[in-house]
Specification:
Rossmann fold, 5-stranded parallel sheet, binds zinc ion, single chain, 36% helix, alpha/beta
């Protein structure tokens, strides 16, 4: 699930290790009537934005779009082969989002293959997938265009564009390519940059701030615990199975969430 190391920068080190220096904003400062949270994998939305979701769900039209099916977290489990694992992970997301106040009908699963979200290359060829990459990208792009045209979000939470995980970067690219112009406000959340061994650079044109989630931190903690396939030994028959470390979990259980936003 993890990609290789990227270059670290003093700026990234400073913000991830001493985030208390970052400006702290309230939910009222970022509220919008229609909000979309995009998750590359089933759990990213809760880890990166669970606090924002808990505060926004009851006071706006909030939807969640999960890009992949999550089947690569335990690829060798016999107890949970791909179809069962997909169903399990989708049910965990619905339960966690429901706990935070999001109706099941407001959670949509695009169902792309975990680990293979297509990405447009420099020459216009898509990378990823096991069929013709360009076809996969174009089909996914149209699906996202249709979804966004219907949802019409005014604020979108996206995975950080330079996250070490390629599915996160590809999800960012896919949604951005599908958005109409002028695009709505987008804020980006880091996941794997919290791991110092994988942390990448943060360009100077990116603003970094914190959202105060103190009031809903217990709810976020409880919602994350519902992803039992990712935080417990629920699936114990795959030696290569993924499990979020307690160290990483603590990063997401602070009384604030970090967001990146392009300076315009
Ligand atoms: Zn992810």
């Amino acid at each position: 699930m993890r990609s290789g190391k990227m270059n670290r920068t003093p700026r990234a080190e400073q913000w991830f290790e001493c985030p208390e220096h970052l400006p702290l904003r309230t939910i009222e400062q970022i509220w919008a009537a229609r909000v979309l949270v995009v998750a590359p994998h089933p759990d990213d939305e809760c880890l990166g934005c669970g606090g924002a979701i808990a505060m926004l769900a009851g006071c706006c039209d909030l939807r969640v779009l999960v890009i992949t099916n999550g089947t690569m977290s335990h690829p060798n489990s016999r107890q949970f082969p791909a179809a069962a694992l997909r169903a399990l992970r989708e049910s965990e997301t619905r339960a966690a989002m429901n706990y935070l106040g999001v109706e099941p009908a407001a959670v949509h699963f695009l169902g792309l293959q975990d680990g293979a979200v297509p990405m447009k290359g420099i020459e216009g060829d898509a990378i990823g997938g096991d069929a013709t990459g360009g076809d996969i990208f174009d089909i996914a792009l149209q699906q996202c265009r249709d979804y966004l045209a219907e949802a019409q979000p005014q604020l979108i939470f996206l995975p950080w564009r330079a996250d070490p995980h390629p599915d996160h970067r590809a999800s960012w690219q896919l949604i951005n390519a599908a958005l109409p112009q002028p695009a709505p406000r987008r804020v980006e959340y880091p996941i794997w940059d919290w791991d110092a061994a994988q942390r990448g650079s943060i360009p100077s044109h990116i603003d970094v701030w914190r959202l105060n989630i103190q009031a809903v931190l217990p709810q976020k903690r409880a919602a994350i615990s519902l992803y039992r396939s990712q935080v417990s030994d629920l699936i114990d028959d795959d030696p290569d199975g993924f499990r979020l470390s307690s160290e990483m979990l603590e990063r997401f259980l602070q009384p604030w969430e970090i967001y990146f936003e392009e300076i315009t």
